[in-house]
Amino acid sequence: MSPQIVAEVRVHIDRVFTKFSEDQSDPYSKMEFVERTSKITNADGSIVSQIEQVLVPTLWSQVAVDIMAQKYFRKAGVPARLKKKIEDGVPGWLCPSEEDTEALSGLSESERMGGETDSRQVFHRLAGCWTYWGWKNKSFANEDQARNYYQEMCHMLASQMAAPNSPQWFNTGLNWAYGIEGPAQGHYFFNERTGQVEKSKNAYERPQPHACFILSIKDDLVGSGGIMDLWQQEARLFKFGSGTGTNFSKLRGEGEFLSGGGKSSGLMSFLKIGDRAAGAIKSGGTTRRAAKMVTLDIDHPDIEEFINWKAKEERKVASIVTGSRILKRRLKEVFLACWDEGFKGDARFDVKENIKLKKAVRRAIEDFIPENYIYRVIQLAQQGIKEFEFEEYDTNWDSEAYATVSGQNSNNSIRLTNDFLHAVEDDGDWDLRQRTNGKVIRRLKARELWQSINNAAWASADPGLQFDTTINEWHTCPEEGRINASNPCSEYMFLDDTACNLASINLMKFYDAKTGVFDVDDFRHACRLWTLTLEISVAMAQFPNAEIARKSYEYRTLGLGYANLGALLMIMGIPYDSEQSRAITGAITALLTGASYAASAELASELGPFAQYEKNKKHMMRVMRNHQRALLNSDRLEYEGLSVFPQGVCAENCPNGLMIAAKKAWGDTLTLGEKYGFRNAQTTCIAPTGTIGLLMDCDTTGIEPDYALVKYKKLAGGGYFKIINQSVPSALRRLGYESDEIRSIIDYCVGTASLEGAPHINLNTLKAKGFTDEVLARVQDELPKVFDITFAFNKFVLGESFCKEVLGVCSEELDSFDFNMLNYLGFSDQNIEEANRVICGTMTLENSPHLKEAHYSVFDCANTCGKYGKRFIRSEAHIHMMAAAQPFLSGAISKTINMPNEATLEEMEKAHTLCWKLMLKGTAVYRDGSKLSQPLNSTISESFKMLEVEDVEEKQPLKIAKKIIEIVREKKRRTLPHRRAGYTQKAVIAGHKVYLRTGQYSDGSLGEIFIDMHKEGAAYRSLMNCFAIAISLGLQHGVPLEEFVDAFVFTRFEPNGIVTGNERITMATSTIDYIFRDLAIHYLDRTDLAQVTPDDLRADAIGKNDESEPDETANQGLKNEVSEIIQEEPKATRAGFHVKGNGSNGHAVKPVEIIPIRSDGNGGGQVVAERKLISTTAIAKLKGYEGDPCTDCGQLTLVRSGTCLKCQTCGATSGCS
User: Is there a catalytic annotation at residue 489?
Assistant: First the structure.
């Protein structure tokens, strides 16, 4: 390469972000740093970890402080005294450091080593390590350029302009900055001086900065690169905080022949082993949970089992949880019956003599409790055991129930080709092929397989889809092989045995809210610097095996992306679901990738292109030209080698300056690329930015929209403070609203947090009830923190003595979970609701004063906002937004496509199809509530009426009988006409013929029935005849048919089963059930009883009448006539959720109160525990969270982050970043 050309494009690093620094050697000269305390607590308030005197930039939030201190600070091994380890050719300030043993000897033993306490230590070790390796890699023209780079990078990290993925924070610079060493862990690196892959001699000299790996697998059990070897490689990655993905399609299917004879146990048996291994590392690791992707081709012989793997395992969890509760309840009843005080001696253990024991045993057998378990309990009682415990499981994601099933420690995806998808469209056949010889092992309908994918995704949010044809049509290096898999979050897609290190740029840092201008020059500068940073990270890295080390050197793939797009669009006043937002997204993404590839070409001019570039040049340049064509919104005929076409950028909907910058970037990319090639085979993708998004104080992650308009800001001393989403006021100003209008709109959403001027519940009304100024001040201090006004009125805030002595509340009421202080004080539910809307806000902007309806869409979020919000971003908008960005990315996008709980299977199919047709590379659709760990009665949905149980009544036979007796006493017998109409219905129930005849009054109402049966003994026929007479007399004395229907539908005894001969009823749980179903259908128009599923035959079927007799409830001492658990309650509120109660923990939730729950034999404790669980998850859902507990801190503050989850409290993430 000629010197003139090198000089022309030599990588030049200007000081842009630090050019106005007063002290040119200090990248933080205009920043203030303060001491903060970082505290992480469990859900119960207990402290997990507390670190004091943490030095961080003043503007950082408490969450960002916690991420830095708790996750990224090195906690041990940092010497208190350091000295430089001088290297030839390296500037002194850039040389590595090591412990100064002489200086340390003057300190006490406890003072010599410690941990990081200042965020600048972390910034220095990262930026300094990058600069050091960049110098050694000849990335800088001179020392001044290296200094400029170091200063700019330190500044960007401190000002939250960008951040690398978590493994960089964990590992990078520990050896360079502190001289930390450790035994080699089996890693490899490529030595450019020798041209060979070599084994690392130290665990820390070369860090593992890569978050994303794709590992290959051979169809070999114990050989190198085989199945068991893969688990070891995965463990090595998980330990250092990285994630990995693998396509397992090479493994032969179940039943395929082995070379040594016998047959393979199949793919699934090995996947379960790997899943267990990942789960163990997740639970024992100190950095984060394991992140893993399992991918399978659509023509694999075991594809059907793989598709339904997670859905099936979740059904197992449901069975374990339900079974454990039924088992505990029934065995407890048996145990308590054995110790009934009415029996003495051995008689208490004899089912023939002890009637209560007999009934308890009968119920247990009806509920399918194993007889040996029943007998075991009786045996324990016979031996004098008076206490008995049986494990009960729950559906928490981190529970033992989930731990017992497989498939819970990975994301699953299926690779779909265009051939398969076209077969689905044409209703064609699809072949499943053996792995060993490629022969067709089975042929099935493509559409049936496609439907099973949609059904599984609808039921359990897995599997995701990867569109194989599209992925490989945008492949820059196909000469090495096809792209078969992705990393766990699906944004990195490249060759097997390669790695990618990620970084994300915070878009909000480049937008001026006052002028409404996005600074394209600064953004491009940041893209150049971070491309260089990620390139340096490839050179300095070590890898888990030799093949990844080789390929990473030869291809040098990067993963630069961005975060906070959703917040940027909202502040700009542009709806997420709009043509304008999609155009802006396309242009920003095009600028990102264009600037990054241009920087890669500049690096290639000095350092040379990646090793395999020449072999793949024609493919790579074709892909580059297609990227540019998408930016120019070219005609489909102009694209090269595509069968599915991208969504171009509509220039009319994009700011002119942004469009010009993007076009220039791609012009530079193609010009420089043609001349010098590229240093990197890939440069960009959109990662979920989970933990690092919190570190940068981003409101939104990756390409996601916001999840809520009201956020809960973590306070330095613990607890949370409710604030409006910081994007909302800026957006309102951008839309032209005045200051007083903005204040009014924000108050409507987040509340006034003040009793002053509130309706019904205010300073005056509370003083009239005895509240003192001191108590009112405590309530006032609590209001900014609470979700609902009732949470501020409990004994902890008011003071227990005040509640008892002034308000007159007794201890029992005060400690009751269901106690509502405001109701006790005389305020009605409506009073509380109206006050709550003013004080605590609505959490939505819908119907707010001053806000124009045309602007509602600007503030739409991924979910409905609060309990009053109705709007949310439709699933198609998520897909179109991904389609706007995808044409300009080297890799793909980690993003969840949100669907409401009421979404149908058809909508799921349409979403998947739209993803394919809009040229996405992969997709993950999440239907709200599709995970079992989210209790259904915490899924707040207007269409879901489960909580509306105002018509639920106790249906015990004794209650029904009492009602019938009362009616008969009041009514005289109504005589039937001598000639009467009716019908005769013949049917067969499980092989037994049944004849039902009816007689009607002249008005068409039912007056009598006759029942005749064949194939039954005379006694049974006579009994049914007498039963019919009794029912007829009841009808004639005025007993409503509805009472009989409610009493006898769903009764269970033989014969039962399939019904033939009746067009409306196909299944019955007993003869009596069949008869009253038929009568209800004909005389009451009860079409809801026209079908019965086989599951209703089970004694534990959902929706059944409780068959326990009222005097047999275990926790009532087996003496009470009727269970007192079921409570009469009014309807649920319009939104399906209303807060009531503030007992021992300050609140209760009405829908939870009115769910009929029977005691399980342990008193009321279990019921209260379930209520608390459901209420807290419901509240978490209303706040915009997922409702699941964080596996690290237990808080219910998980939100979607790409295809993964992240905790807003402690920063834990299930993804790579």
Answer: yes
